[in-house]
Amino acid sequence: MSQNDSCCRVCSRGLYSCHWKRSTKKKHACCWLSFVAVVSLLSLCWMYICLVTFNDREDVNWEGFDKLKRWVNWFMVLIIISAVLTSYCVLLLLFALFQVALREPLNLHWLHKIFLFFGVIFIALGVTGISLKWKQEWPIVPLSLQATAPFLQFGAVGALTLLSYFVFQGFHTAKAKWSRFLIAVIFVVLSAAIFLCPLIIQSPCLIVELPEKPKLIGHRGAPMLAPENTMMSFNRSIACGVTAFETDVQLSKDRVPFLMHDHNSGFLRRTTNVKEKFPGEDFNLSSSLTWEELQSLNAGKWFLKTDPFRSVSNLTEEEMETARNQTIPSLLQLLNLAKQHNISVIFDLYSPNQENDTVDTVNTILSSGIDPGLVLWLPPAEREYVNRTAPGFVQVYNNESDMLEEGGDHLNVKYSNLSAKKIREHRSRNVTVNLWVVNERWLFSLLWCAGASSVTTNSCHLLKDMEQPDWVMTPRTYKIIWITVDVVSALIMTGLYIFQRKTHCFCNRKGTETQRNNSPAWNEKELSPFLPIG
User: Fold this and answer.
1) Helix (H) and strand (E) counts for the chain?
2) CA atoms of 415 and 307, how far apart (whole Å)
3) Which residues contact 129 (CB under 8 A, 6 or more apart)?
4) Is residue 391 helix, strand or coil?
5) Is residue 518 classed as helix, strand or coil in its secondary structure?
6) DSSP labels for 25-91?
7) Model pTM greater than 0.85?
8) Are 298 and 273 in contact (CB under 8 A)?
């Protein structure tokens, strides 16, 4: 096998161009290489967005259920497709760089071009979909950079160091001066941006003293371990050490407050067997059924069937049997459990008639005998009435302006609505800050460093075992690591540049000697001074 047909060359050539034999370099090969690089970068960015928004995957699944009336883990489908696309693009780019290193011609096959265009369309549709239907999710991307930016910068420096070999090779082999100038300018600007970006990187985890670990509030109980808003779910959350139960309250036709999140369109269809129990009926309001009818519904089989968090396999047979027999609980049942374990209760009140439903809900709470200080009152509609009737309730606000206006000191907002600076300001004024819904370790770590008082979570069983954030370091330590990594990278790239320059000069000299030895015209020119005239 010749050098041009070595195993590495043949494999690289075949995977990139789908031609096993060496062919001549085609036009626009450099443009297609650039296109592969751009699509690879876009796919990596899109995959990053998918991974950081994984914390809120249930919002996407709920949107799908709301439209199709069928529960499917749509977000996991999106993750799988995105992972395949990213792997394909990155591998294709690696094959292209491998061919450049082997000095093979770059002939991108038309099939790869089609797949790349489909990849661009898929990413564009994904970004458009988030912007139109899920735009409240965009703030998580800059928030996630507070947790990942220091390490992304280290990775970017490493990638830049490796790619510099190919850049220097292209610089030395470029014939036109403008090409060399363009390569040099782009590389220098990009290197400066990557080396110096830590100057603008800010993270709450770059601190000297770590705040106290945030307390955990069970979001509808422990929905990864049991069907949400069931007594099994709340009992499982107790083992996680939660300090409060978070739930959703609605009122039945006969004025009994019960626990259920879904309301309006699709009421009861996701988490109960209402379609089997009442075929042909389509209930959109909680007041459509009596408490007896609600109790006749099964609220646990859906969990075992759909496995929304891919956690059913971790349950024992006994736990599965318990889950299979869950029913819709009343608010009074939850209050009795909270009273027994001295755990607080916080809830949303879903009701088209807030005034009357607030009265019945407050009466149910007061008649339960629970300590009023364990009730975290969140619904804003009838707050004045609640303050008069039950002054012992802790008033919790879902926006800063209302809290400051009414002199409150408990705030409950989405995690992306408060910056780390704002959280620290509130905590310095002894304001209790709870953030929802926090499921992933990286996000919990970030809010821990920021000083959040508590978080509402689906994964209390995972977060309870965290003894410290995923990472935390002092600003001085980070500065030392950053400068060291940059200096080492600069030294390596300098060495690679010198090596490439010497190699290029050696190849030129060798090529010149070969031309002298093999060219008759060159030999005649060299010998002409010594030949006789005439």
Assistant:
1) 21, 9
2) 26
3) none
4) coil
5) helix
6) PPTTHHHHHHHHHHHHHHHHHHHHHHHHGGGGHHHHHHHHHHHHSS---HHHHHHHHHHHHHHHHHH
7) yes
8) yes
Angle at 184 between CA 181 and CA 189, to 5 degrees: 125
Cβ-contact 108, 36 below 8 angstroms? yes
Q: How far apart are CA 400 and CA 389, in angstroms?
A: 24
Alpha carbon of residue 374 to chain centroid:
34
* Cα–Cα distance measured from residue 143 to residue 48, given in angstroms and rounded to the nearest whole number: 13
Q: Which residues of 457-468 are buried (b: 16+ CB within 10 A; e: fewer)?
A: bbbbbebeeeee
**Residue-by-residue pLDDT tens, the chain, 534 positions:** 445 556 666 665 666 666 555 555 556 777 888 899 999 999 999 999 999 999 999 888 887 887 777 788 889 999 999 999 999 999 999 888 888 777 777 888 888 999 999 999 999 999 999 999 888 899 999 999 999 999 999 999 999 999 998 889 888 887 788 888 998 999 999 999 999 999 999 999 999 999 999 999 999 999 999 999 999 999 999 999 999 999 999 999 999 999 999 987 778 999 999 999 999 888 888 989 999 999 999 999 999 999 999 999 999 999 999 999 999 999 999 999 999 999 999 999 998 889 999 999 999 999 999 999 999 999 999 999 999 999 999 999 999 999 999 999 999 999 999 999 999 999 999 999 999 999 999 999 999 999 999 999 999 999 999 999 999 999 999 999 999 999 999 999 999 999 888 877 766 665 555 555 555 544 444 433 333 333
